[in-house]
Amino acid sequence: MKRDNGTVSNIKIVSELMLRLLPAQVLLVAVGSVNGIVSSLFASNFLGPEAMSAVGLCSPLNMLMVSVSTVIMGGSVIICGQYMGKDMEERLQDVFSADLTWALIFAAGFTALFVPASLFDLTGFLTRDASIRPLLNSYMLGQAAGIVPLLAGNTFAAFLSMENRTRRTYAASILYIVSNAVLNFLFVVRLKAGIFGLALASSLGGWIFLAFNASAFLSRNSRLRIRAGSIRGDVSGDIFRIGLPGAASNVYQTARGLIVNRLIEAFVGSMGISAFAASDTVMRVFWAIPGGMLAVSRLMMSVSAGEEDRQTLTDVMRVMFRRYLPLMCAVSAGIILCAEPFSSIFYRDPSSAVHIMTVWGFRILPLCMPLSVIYMHFSCFYQLTDRSFLVHLLALLDGVVSVVVFSAVLIPSMGMNSVYVSNVLNGVVTTIVIAAFAWIRAGHIPKNMEELMVIPRELGAPEDMRLDLSVDSMEEVLTIAETLQAFCLSKGIDEKRSYIAALCTEEMAGNIVSHGFTKDGRRHSIDVRAVVKDEEVILRIRDDCVPFDPYERSRLTEGDDILKNIGIRMVFACARDVQYKNILGLNALTIRI
Q: Total domain count for the chain?
């Protein structure tokens, strides 16, 4: 099957992979948010609205820590994805060690700031309310105990996902949530430890999460290991260079939180902060969905960039528009419909001002979520292609400028609702900027996904020098072999190598259909890409079947049966180089002729 652009793309494989990886990534992002809800429920029901205000006031500092984690983890994931795409997996240990080391360094720094600030009442920059400050100080002191597992735990979870070990991530996440709930009940309800016990429960749960994930890297069977030693300066530099633009939005959101909290205090009062904290706490759970979507897409795009695979890059973005965006719209609609029940979880009196303000938060804030999915994906792609200025511009608009400006203008007349509406207008602004950038670069309204993404010309092979084919049955194997041979001849490749390229593709694709398609009873597809570059034919055969390394199979030739695996051995004999890797559960075979 060919598309109008003359290429054949297996968007089905990309789509199914992105949907399969999504639940684990959403759960990973949602852990902190779910625990936030647990803490907020205990705060609002057992400690009162003032405790909720303290939780809300601490939110900008939590966002700052998330920003640091995003810099380290985001840069590491992108670099590792590119290494995997370029068959440089031996560098993964260097990145893992650097990531973990920097996470621990920053965790120690934040702990050193939180403890004295809470013990010596140095939190006046967060609030001027003398009745709230003691609660805020106690809450920050309890949180200080959980900073190390917050930053280091994210590192372990991210690398487990890259190794396709999502079951441990699921188990650790569930264990974290359950332990947090049990510890909150123990400290807040039974021991009457107040808001300090509220924060300490979450911190101890974080240590359980960290220990469970870290144990996976102590095993001898782990590809990556926890080990002491020096870290490479060039690796650290790359992590921060690549990760910083993507985390800029979170840094700006820290400033936004401080400014918006002051506006709410001045025009609405502390009940406005309580309402925003309640709605934001629940919304953060649902924000895990676009966060998980971004985590999957970031890794997929990173690997594709490492492989210089323009087609998969565009397919990832197509899946975002066709699958992720409609899903996010449905989730947003569900939140809006549940505005009253969600508000009643925290504030049961429907006539109270704080309940009414919370309801409006649930009715308005979800409208910005679909727009944010678009912003997050394009910002990630810009980050991947070193468009740092554009990443920072979008982050500045999304993180602070749009929300603060709209809130400051509207809050005198709209009150608390101005903050909610400003978040929606913010999404409109960033979407307009993305479309305008593509329009300016193309010189016209973008006509296809490559123009909308503004993919650099130097990335990958030009469209006329690559061929993408998909195989769903044995009948299509011979057809694509003939098509591929004709393509190679048309690009100046000699008859012998054109024939070898077709023969290798026919043998490997046929082997996958005969054996891989029948292993588990599921429907499968094969994605075949041929690139002619520097007078060399590069074949990439990718499938979603069970892991299968043809190199290991090619060595099984001892014994009386000299014909055993003769087809695979023929491929290794004819090709200049053959490389196999399993990335994110996909088999990827690269053959150079």
A: 2
CATH number of the domain encompassing residue 578: 3.30.565.10
Q: Residue 510's pLDDT is what?
A: 85
313, 230: one domain: yes
Among candidate residues 211, 203, 361, the one with its CA nearest the CA of residue 278: 361
Q: What is the number of other CB atoms lying within 10 angstroms of the CB of residue 552?
A: 10
pLDDT score, position 85? 67
Domain boundary among 409, 442, 475: 442
Rounded CA gap, 74 and 418, in Å?
A: 32
* 272, amino acid identity: G
Cα–Cα–Cα angle for 147, 399, 383, rounded to 5 degrees: 85
Domain boundary among 442, 476, 509: 442
Name all contacts of 315-320 with Cβ < 8 Å and 24+ positions apart. Answer: 315/9, 315/11, 315/14, 315/15, 316/14, 316/18, 317/377, 317/381, 317/449, 317/452, 317/453, 318/11, 318/449, 319/11, 319/14, 319/15, 319/18, 320/293, 320/373, 320/374, 320/377
> Could you tell me if 135 and 270 lie in one domain?
yes
* Residue 578: strand, helix, or coil: strand
Q: Same domain for 424 and 508?
A: no
In a domain, 455, yes or no: no
Domain contains 533: yes
Q: Which pTM was predicted?
A: 0.72
248 and 341 in a single domain? The answer is: yes
Provide the b/e sequence for 499-531 (b: ≥16 CB within 10 Å): bbbbbbbbbbbbbbbeebbeeeeeebbbbbbbb
Are 437 and 468 part of one and the same domain? no
Q: Which residues pair with 543 in a beta bridge?
A: 526, 587
Residue 458 lies in a domain: no
- Quick one: residue 470, left, alpha or beta (phi over 0 = left, psi -120 to 50 = alpha)? beta
Q: Kindly tell me if the per-residue pLDDT of 259 is higher than 80.
A: yes
Q: Is the pLDDT of residue 246 over 70?
A: no
Instruction: Answer yes or no: are the C-beta atoms of 168 and 112 closer than 8 Å.
Output: no
DSSP string spanning 500-549? HHHHHHHHHHHHHHHHGGGSSS----EEEEEEEETTEEEEEEEE-SS---
493, 529 Cβ separation under 8 angstroms = no
State which residues form the domain around 87: 11-442
- Work out the end-to-end distance of the chain between its first and last CA atoms, rounded to an integer number of angstroms: 25
579 DSSP assignment? E
Mean residue pLDDT across the chain: 84
